[in-house]
């Protein structure tokens, strides 16, 4: 039976070769090409000729499909980014993209066939769409180079593609929608817009040592995959930012997002109906993100007896405004941690004392960061940002006034919006003297009341 089949296949292939060689003998080259193209247009012949060519070919192929099964193939994305970035003066097909008017032009290679050499080995890439319309990147290489391709080339392409993507990544900010607007399949939970806050760690006005510590902590977290795997801990970190209004809590979150290139999920607890909604929202967040709950003490009444509140929430069921402290804590420690990686959680508050200890204990909130009134060090950073000066003869006076007054970096910054250096520094000195005077009056009043 097998021998019979083999004979039949052999005679069919021989028949095809005979027809082909006859055509080649009697028809000119152009007509041969036309015939070949016409045959190739008939899907069954195309598949057959591709199979025959593949069988006799000394080349091997690796396909990266956009979708594998029902899942997006991240290797495809990396390969596509890598190929798109191969831009140089010899490339003839390029495409230009400008997402926003004020953003720079992004040039990408737009060839469907790309040839390159790696360690002396030739590689041929082709980008096309399969019958179902999904994109495929296909690599062709000589079989004798199997070891180079599978040993190092593909790893290099994927890693390079990922790092190009990370460099070009735009930070997004996502805000939760009320459940009324949610659609099926976990869609419509978050509204997404591009995040364009210019704050960086350089422009952040605070004590240099403290700033360095936070910076190093974030970088260690970002590069800490192996460490977290080794110690068997979920790859997440919590920061609690506390301090009076206008001291830079929101600015620090922006600087964190810009440094890490993580998206920000701005979680507005007051528009969440219950723990079930909270759970859905948190599960829909992606890796490499910062989940922010601003003014945690105002968003929820999280203080006092936890048990009493939770009981109330349970009794009233799903419909009640029942986002509870234990609901929040469970997701921070439990299910959510297990299903997500590389996430940062940031809580901000103006009143540290109001928070429940369970919420802010170490391990949940790994770092407590106080942002406070403007020091001379912080003032110098603001002066550099706003006025582009490193020193000035009025700095000495400002330094001694800052030691005696409580002024927020936001108020200091307000005085430096005037471009003229002398005028803005003198304005700041007047403001500091006013604050100092009113602080002294207050102290005197308190003393008199004490008498
Ligand atoms: N530490 C800081 N470094 C640089 N700029 C700052 C700093 N603090 C405040 N600012 C300036 O003041 C403005 C208000 O600061 P920000 O919104 O970060 O304060 P906040 O601590 O989040 O206040 P709130 O508690 O009211 O939310 C910012 O836009 C920024 O320009
Ligand atoms: Mg804020």
Automatic annotation (TrEMBL):
Alphabetic keyword roster: ATP-binding, Hydrolase, Magnesium, Nucleotide-binding
Cofactor(s) the record lists: Mg(2+)
Record has ATP-binding as a keyword: yes
PROSITE patterns membership: AAA (PS00674)
UniProt xrefs under Pfam families: AAA, AAA_assoc, AAA_lid_At3g28540
Keyword ATP-binding listed: yes
PANTHER family in alphabetical order: BCS1 AAA-TYPE ATPASE
Family that this chain belongs to: Belongs to the AAA ATPase family. BCS1 subfamily.
Name the UniProt record assigns to this protein: AAA-type ATPase N-terminal domain
Organism the protein comes from: Arabidopsis suecica
Lineage: Eukaryota, Viridiplantae, Streptophyta, Embryophyta, Tracheophyta
